[in-house]
Design brief:
- By secondary structure, the protein is α/β, with parallel strands linked by helices.
- It folds into three domains: 2-107, no CATH class; 117-248, Beta-Lactamase; 257-415 and 463-507, Rossmann fold (3-Layer(aba) Sandwich).
- Helix content is 44%, strand content 21%.
- It is built from 19 helices and 16 strands.
- Strands 1-5-6-7-2-3-4 form a seven-stranded antiparallel sheet, covered by helices on one side. Strands 10-9-11-12-8-13-16 form a seven-stranded mixed sheet, with helices on both faces. Strands 14-15 form a two-stranded antiparallel sheet.
- Strand 5 and strand 6 form a beta hairpin.
- Helix 5 (72-89) crosses helix 6 (94-107), helix 8 (138-156) crosses helix 9 (190-203) and helix 14 (384-393) runs antiparallel to helix 18 (483-510).
- The longest helix is centred in the C-terminal third of the chain and has 28 residues, at 483-510.
- The termini are far apart.
- The relative contact order is 0.07.
Length: 524
């Protein structure tokens, strides 16, 4: 008997080695471990199938029972069928689709998490526009899937613009502007891409038969993370039709002064200004420099329940709860100047002007700041000094500028270094001597390297660089009385403004936030 032999071994104090030799186990321990692992794996597969997009909801009970017996084999079959179906409906390769689906399984996301619904201005789904919600046509289904995928990828990459333009007569290029820099993501044959352009034009309420005349439109996208608005613009170009999409945000509550790049001192200055009952702050910078974001960050500092805030924008880029937002529409004869005149009769406390473009808008805004209103406005210019010059070039009187304007804020956006791959910068001897002469600590200066996390760019996200000019009484007197002061502004103001912005940007470089190359790219 095996048991008696086992006991007798201990009774006679036989060594452990001889015990193992005489003992013959009833089972194989390796098989037992594999059996337990298989059972747990089957239970895991059943759990995943209950929330998986691979199985229809009405078939999940049957799939759960089958999963208890065949386990991972069922999951493998379903996964293969899903990849084959997606490959037949799109132009993407099988390897790319497999990576995407594996990424969804590893992160725990489902099909609903990556689902996107495109809606026209009236709220109709693009599928209804395409064919009354019936997608029996395989080609149409593939075009719609590709359209959804392009826009969804742009939102995932935090793109601010999507550019679809012809490379030649047979190929179109799709590019995304991420952190202010264009990145090519895909090239598609002209016939397929033209169908994608037509689907976007259709959901934007544009004429798909017109390919030469410039058109404008808009649509929205609903995802699991919220709703986004898009502004579309098309134009006929060489070799085909170009389509540009501007991605607009959906909520402005996330913008605050302490998160957009202001130093502690600058944050205190602007926060103190927006709590004043009257005055004017003018934000200036080129297109895409983050002026609108700063504008909303300032508005978020204001108590919207106790102060009547009215904005005039073109277009409304972010929704600001508890504020009255007016969108400029030249076709309906709704301009900045006419909207401002009507706003002054609505008892406003704070007036926000999306952009000062002409003399009439500038004069109304400056007068409003003198009559007990707080005015926040933006203007396209390169520096604080050039903003003053431009106001005067708009034929606004020097006395009105001096009495109505209180703060000038110029800004730029620089890319943040990727925290996963940034490396110490190799500085030249001239740079080291210059930093040492100015007593600047250069040991924390980094440069971009590039990794998979940042798509090999070396940067991830952006931060603003600010130059704030407080118009003191002395400066106002010089603006109002001295012609020589204005002449100096025209000659040297632009250079001085860039120099001030460079100093502020250099602080970000020394702190290891951005790089010298990025600062040079933005400011020259």
């Amino acid at each position: 008997m095996q048991i008696s032999a086992f006991i007798s071994c201990f009774c006679t104090e036989v060594s452990a080695a001889s015990v193992l030799c005489q003992l013959s186990l009833f089972f194989n321990p390796i098989k037992l471990v594999l059996l337990i692992a298989w059972v747990y794996l089957c239970l895991y597969v059943v759990q995943r199938l209950q929330f998986s997009s691979l199985v229809p909801e009405n078939r999940r009970s049957i799939a759960a029972v089958a999963g208890l017996f065949v386990g991972p084999l069922l999951l493998l079959v379903l996964f293969s069928v899903d990849v084959a179906r997606r490959s037949s409906r799109s132009d993407r390769g099988i390897i790319e689709i497999i990576k995407e689906r594996l990424r969804q399984f590893s992160t725990g996301t489902t099909e609903d998490d990556s689902r996107i619904i495109l809606l026209d201005p009236s709220g109709r789904n693009i599928e209804e526009i395409y064919g009354e919600g019936k997608r029996s046509d395989r080609y149409a289904s593939r075009i719609l899937d590709l359209t959804h995928q392009i826009i969804y990828d742009a939102l995932q990459e935090r793109a601010s613009d999507i550019l679809i333009d012809p490379r030649d007569k047979t190929t179109y290029t799709i590019r995304l502007r991420v952190d202010g820099v264009l990145r090519t993501i895909e090239q598609i044959d002209s016939d397929t891409c033209q169908a994608v352009i037509n689907s976007i034009k259709a959901v934007s309420s544009m004429d798909i038969s017109e390919r030469r005349r410039p058109q404008d439109g808009s649509f929205s996208a609903q995802t699991c993370s919220g709703r986004y608005s898009f502004r579309a613009a098309s134009a006929g170009v060489l070799n085909g039709e170009k389509l540009s999409l501007r991605v607009l945000g959906h909520y402005a509550g996330e913008f605050t002064l302490d998160k957009i790049g202001l130093s502690k001192k600058q944050c205190e200055v602007l926060s103190k200004m927006v709590h004043k009952p009257s005055g004017m702050v003018l934000l200036c910078g080129p297109t895409g420099s983050g002026k609108t974001t700063t504008l909303y960050a300032m508005l978020n500092e204001i108590d919207l329940f106790t102060r009547n805030v009215i904005t005039v924008e073109d277009p409304i880029e972010y929704v600001l709860p508890n504020a009255s937002q007016i969108e400029v529409n030249p076709k309906a004869d709704i301009t900045f100047a006419k909207s401002l005149r009507s706003i002054l009769r609505q008892d406003p406390d704070v007036i926000c002007v999306g952009e000062i473009r002409d003399e009439e808008t500038a004069e109304i805004a400056l007068r409003a700041s003198q009559t007990g209103h707080l005015v926040l406005a933006t203007m396209h210019s390169n520096s604080n000094a050039s903003s003053l010059v431009r106001l005067l070039d708009l034929r606004v009187s020097r006395l009105m500028v001096a009495s109505g304007l209180d703060y000038l804020v110029s800004q730029r956006l620089v890319r943040r270094l990727c925290a996963d791959c940034k490396v110490p910068a190799e500085l030249s001897q001239n740079q080291i001597r210059e930093f040492s002469r100015k007593r600047i600590n250069y040991t924390n200066i980094f440069k971009a390297e590039g990794c998979e996390q940042c798509h090999w760019t070396g940067y991830s996200g952006r931060i603003a660089v600010f130059d704030i000019l407080v118009l003191t009484n002395d400066i106002k007197i010089q603006i109002a009385d001295s012609e020589g002061f204005l002449s100096d502004l025209r000659k040297d103001g632009e250079q001085k403004g860039r120099s001030n912005l460079y100093k502020q940007g250099l602080k970000k470089v020394v702190l290891g936030i951005t790089s010298l190359d990025e600062l040079k790219r933005v400011l020259g």
